[in-house]
Amino acid sequence: MTVRINYAKKTFSKSSSNLILFSNDKFSSGAIKKYLSNSEFSYINDLLKTIDVKKNLFVFEVNSKKKIILISIKNNLKISDVESLGAELYGRINQGKNSEYFLNSDSILSKHKNFLGHFLHGLKLKSYEFKKYKTKKEIRIINLNIIGSTNKPSAQNQLKFKALEEGTFYARDLVSEPGNVLHPDEYAKRLNLLKKDGLKVNIYDEKKLKKLGMNALLGVGMGSIRGSYLVTMEWNGLKNNSRPLAFVGKGVTFDTGGYSLKPARFMEDMTYDMAGSAAVVGLMKNLALRKAKVNAVGVVGLVENMVSGIAQRPGDIVKSFSGKTIEVLNTDAEGRLVLADALTYTEKKYKPKFIIDLATLTGAIIVCLGSEYAGLFSNDDKLSKQILAAGENTEEKLWRMPLHKNYDKLMNSKNADVQNINYVGGAGSTTAAQFLQRFILNKTPWAHLDIAGMAFSKYGGALNSGGATGFGVRLLNQLIEENYE
To answer: Is the pTM here over 0.90, yes or no?
Structure first.
């Protein structure tokens, strides 16, 4: 279903059908009286005496043609609460045959800056659906007309929210695509189209990667008939040579596990093993669309991890872009090999202020944190605090996990500089992060976000209806807005 938000030229009328009004935390009726006819107010006022004020939203069927939806603005709401409230409204208007609603912005009595903007942002995020491959599509459009003369978001804020929604939806679209469609060749072509949004895009194919010495990344894609790529996307919003913020994403478009084959059960979910890269792409698209006042670069490694006669074997040793040699003990620990080359390349080429990488890296982080938090690993306390705060504000939460020299030594190899799994067992997410840290060569502030439990939701969340979540786009945008613009 498509929700169109119209900042209506239509003026408020008490006869407007399907009216949406806001009330205080007690659902006091006095504040809404002026927006209702006498009969409507009498009817709703009687019902309000019987309701549970702990709830957020009530729908009153005034007659067969008109609904009045009353939404309570509780005290001490966080921004994420306001957005969740908008998502809750979507759940109510996405029912029945009603296709037009009027939201009266004058009824909003809130100290929250840009309350309506965040409210509508949550509603839009919740409305996302991926039905590209449904042959029978239900075409339904709901027009949400914003009436009233106050509390409307500015044109600039409307643009920011729209850019953030487009970036998030683009990330969700990428993650939702099946592996036979979004293989590395197709993915690289789509990223090249982002030039039209104002991004500078460079695509490094296998020939260029071999010349650069990115053998860790190339080793993962050896078994596939598809190409392997490193793609860089640059946004120069400051028009100067200041060091950029860098974001790196794992883009394994399908992961069989290689010769360390995954179990057949749930292997179909491995189409979303490129969600880290999708978050980076969605973020960069958002920054370009809203013309962010920041210099930033997104780097993604695109590969397909398949089984064939020329696929990488357990026990192989490869030389990474950094010059360090890696013993590949498990071909299903492939994402860290892709990121190893991408991280070192990003640090050497761009000399960024910081590097944040995102990856659906380990099943161990799901065992540890489930689908409530992503894992955060970092060599920098300041950057960690900034990311954690941004996560709280966007409800894309993270939990900081440990890094320590005793974990690091578990990644030492007898036959190479480093091995790609921990022989001893346990601490799977931490040892994976320790592996990645070895490829940050110049002490650049760095954070690794393991989003394996957050990238895809089978049951839906506050701001998504199930499927790809786009986790990371809003989080990193918030980080940039709060600290770097």
So the answer is: yes
